[in-house]
């Protein structure tokens, strides 16, 4: 096996086992419901170099914040421009609302992305170096492993000491699992 990120075969590699859960969102007249099924248990590998790079990106997130915020900043700016343009013209109020709404969506998006990135930075900062590398390697597994199985979304549940210690209820809330699936995952983790 090779590193999931850089594809290199390296001796310095961390191996992760993960249980897949497939979730299908069904929208019908009653609203939305989900159907879940247990997938395979697979192994993924991440090399130390890729994990170290991820730790640095999390600890010094300036570039990442800019990239994550860019789409929302663009929406906000378009919103601000529309707000200014549409107030000077005689336009139906329903259209006049588009500018301010886009502006607010943009600002809220930027704030939430900055918060999310800084929260992640704070939690990694508190870890020891080895913990941080392992934590970031797992983040890379989730980011780079397939996200879809047909129309189903894939959730990855790591097989480690922390998940092994969880009850079915805890697994259910932590990973958004239906109770029956959480019990099955619990059995696999034992
Ligand atoms: Zn790598």
Short précis:
With 190 residues, the protein is of the alpha+beta class.
How many DSSP helices?
A: 8
Bound molecules: zinc ion
Give the CA-CA distance, first to last residue.
25 Å
**Beta fraction of the residues?**
15-25%
Unreliable sequence segments:
none
| Proportion in helices | 55-70%
Q: Please state the average pLDDT score.
A: 92
SSE pattern, N- to C-terminal: EEHHHHHEEHHH
Number of domain modules: 2
Characterize the structure shown.
The protein has 2 domains: 13-54 and 129-189, no CATH class; 61-124. The two termini are 25 Å apart. A hairpin with a 2-residue loop joins strand 1 (13-28) and strand 2 (31-47). It is of the alpha+beta class. It is built from 8 helices and 4 strands; from the N terminus they run ββαααααββααα. The chain is 58% helix and 22% strand. It has a 4-stranded antiparallel sheet. It has helices at residues 48-59, 62-88, 93-96, 98-125, 129-144, 161-164, 168-175, 179-189; strands at residues 13-28, 31-47, 148-149, 152-158. Zinc ion (ZN) binds at residues 3, 5-6, 8, 47, 49-50. Zinc ion binds at residues 3, 5-6, 8, 47, 49-50.
Secondary structure topology:
Blueprint: E1 13-28, E2 31-47, H1 48-59, H2 62-88, H3 93-96, H4 98-125, H5 129-144, E3 148-149, E4 152-158, H6 161-164, H7 168-175, H8 179-189
Antiparallel strand pairs: 1-2, 1-4, 3-4
The structure holds zinc ion.
Residues 3, 5-6, 8, 47, 49-50 line the site of zinc ion (ZN).
Can you tag this structure with a few keywords?
190 residues, alpha+beta, 8 helices, binds zinc ion
